[in-house]
């Protein structure tokens, strides 16, 4: 029967640990220990106006597109442009200029990294009856 001495066991364990550390350090996002690979994506999205009260009309927005940066873990899938929506909520607006934050709807697997610009100026007027 084959038997290892105490020093040979320690040497074999040290070699095994060194190989694991090398594998982890050489590629942290795509090694055997991770199930998916981190991905980053950038999209140029049109901005929608939502929840505008019926007695108001939208005159103008200072920007009509925003750059949306996301981060997601790829489990052999991708985040498509159609799954992302950039919008401003106009529920509580007053006539005139309103500064609004650009909000983003994302799939549950994605995380928002940033929106550029982060806000916009919306001009709203009352409808004439």
Describe this structure in words.
The chain has 129 residues and is α+β, with helices and mostly antiparallel strands. It is built from one helix and eight strands, in the order H-E-E-E-E-E-E-E-E. It has two domains: 1-33; 39-126, Beta Complex (RNA Polymerase Alpha Subunit, Chain A, domain 2). The strands form two sheets. A five-stranded mixed β-sheet has the order 6-4-1-3-7, with no helix packed on it. It is rod-shaped. The model has no long low-confidence stretch (mean pLDDT 85). This is YbbR-like protein.
What's a quick, concise take on this entry?
The protein is an alpha+beta fold and 129 residues long.
List keywords for this structure.
2 domains, single chain, 8 strands, rod-shaped, 1 helix, RNA Polymerase Alpha Subunit, Chain A, domain 2, 129 residues, alpha+beta, 5-stranded mixed β-sheet, 3-stranded antiparallel β-sheet
Outline the secondary-structure elements:
Layout (H helix, E strand, L loop, with lengths): L5 H21 L10 E14 L5 E6 L3 E10 L10 E5 L6 E6 L1 E3 L4 E7 L2 E8 L3
Parallel strand pairs: 1-4
Antiparallel strand pairs: 1-3, 2-8, 3-7, 4-6, 5-8
Radius of gyration: 26 Å
Low-confidence stretches: none
> Architecture of the largest domain in CATH?
Beta Complex
User: CA-to-CA gap between the ends?
Assistant: 98 Å
Q: Give the strand line-up of the largest sheet.
A: 6-4-1-3-7
Morphology: rod-shaped
Order of helices and strands: HEEEEEEEE
Number of structural units classed as domains: 2
What is the number of helices?
A: 1
CATH class of the largest domain: Mainly Beta
Main pleated sheet? 5 strands, mixed
* Mean of all residue-level pLDDT scores: 85
- Taken as a percent bin, the fraction of beta residues is over 45%
The counted number of beta strands is 8
Oligomeric state, counting identical vs distinct chains: single chain
